[in-house]
Amino acid sequence: MVFEMAELQRLVEDLGQRLSRSIALDDTDLRLLAYSSHAGEVDPARTTSILKRKVSRSVVDYVREKGARGTDNFFTIPARPDLGIEIARIGVPVKYRGALLGFMWLLTSEGAVDDLQASAVRRAAETVGLIIHREYLLGELSRGRERELTRDLLADQAEVRAQAAEQLVAENLFSHRASAALVVTLTRGNSPLTEQDRLALTAGVEFGRSRREQRRALTLERPDHAILLLTDDHPTKRGALAELGTGIRERVLAEADSHTCCWIGIGEPRTRLEDVHASYADARRAAEVASVVRVLGFVVRYSELGVYSMLAELPPDRLADSLHPGLRALFERPRPGEDDLVFTLEAFFDNAGNIKRTSEQLRIHRTSLYYRLKRVEEITGVDLSRGDDRLSLHLGLKIARLIAMH
């Protein structure tokens, strides 16, 4: 939600001057929207609010505990020095047609609030409610138009994409620059995503959007993934998008259901906005491949897929036909007690054949590892000391993961 901050700031400053008091305006999560100058002392909670535009979660919980969200009149928040609230607050809710939109605050250290002051504060709170509601409606209309054009920007038809790119720039919704796509996906095994998971996806891309200036980010949610389109402001800083992706992933996992895995793909930038759909395709492919080829990590650029990018382009039936027959025998072996052989072989390959690292990862003795590898050779009919055989099996294991064969 984008508020007309200058208008709110002028209103709060005018009220503070008329009442000769310090006034602060927060949203419902106690994020600072505007404040007047302070004639007297302030406490650490107010200082933090001014400097960081927000307060700690403990302060938010304390204010809610004192019933701030459930009243229509003035209320008092007692001092809590351990939370940085060394001066008690007098608050009044900001509402529009019963909906809570924020709070206006005064300090008890500046005296009690008389009837004239209370009347002025109530009128100001009513005006603030009208402003915030108006900006909310305008913001929703703007976001609705933005989502519509973003969907068109990723459409299959070239003429639709070109028109969407032109309108996004003309309507001042996005900068006409080189752009890249970031895709966030969630998986829960064979279980469908929950509503909480979908909200987590939205929270993740909105977190990423908040890290960019206006007109330099677009978001879109799909049933099973979320998209963040960004202007490629720093094409030479290849780690910047990966760092942003890591932050988004942490936010998503903090909001999603437990036992949910998050994968993020980053597409290669395109010089024209109407071509960003190709970056989106890159990002989706990177996230999909990363989710099955776990050694790539959780945040993966399309350019880092290497051979997996090529393999993912091939039809699953062709990939299945290319598997080494010995590997098929390993997957289908009937003997009990050897369920760890495939996992052991993959760990051996992923550790570049290093016996020490592999045995430590599997937490087994080297003798046990040698025994398992010997059994693999017997079942598959290959010689793991030969580079070609190792390459064939290693690639086959990755192919099997790509086509969900094992």
Structure explained in plain terms:
This protein has helices at residues 5-19, 44-52, 57-65, 115-153, 158-170, 195-210, 238-255, 276-292, 307-313, 316-321, 325-332, 341-350, 355-362, 366-380, 387-402; strands at residues 24-27, 32-35, 75-77, 89-96, 99-107, 179-187, 217-222, 225-231, 261-266, 299-301. It has 406 residues and is an alpha+beta fold. Strands 2-1-5-4-3 form a five-stranded antiparallel β-sheet. It has a five-stranded mixed β-sheet with strand order 7-8-6-9-10, sandwiched between helices. Helix 6 runs antiparallel to helix 7 and helix 12 (341-350) crosses helix 14 (366-380). The longest helix has 39 residues, at 115-153. The model has no long low-confidence stretch (mean pLDDT 86).
Which secondary structure elements does this structure contain, and how are they paired or packed?
Elements: H1 5-19, E1 24-27, E2 32-35, H2 44-52, H3 57-65, E3 75-77, E4 89-96, E5 99-107, H4 115-153, H5 158-170, E6 179-187, H6 195-210, E7 217-222, E8 225-231, H7 238-255, E9 261-266, H8 276-292, E10 299-301, H9 307-313, H10 316-321, H11 325-332, H12 341-350, H13 355-362, H14 366-380, H15 387-402
Parallel strand pairs: 9-10
Antiparallel strand pairs: 1-2, 1-5, 3-4, 4-5, 6-8, 6-9, 7-8
Helix pairs in contact: 1-4, 4-5, 6-7, 12-14, 13-14
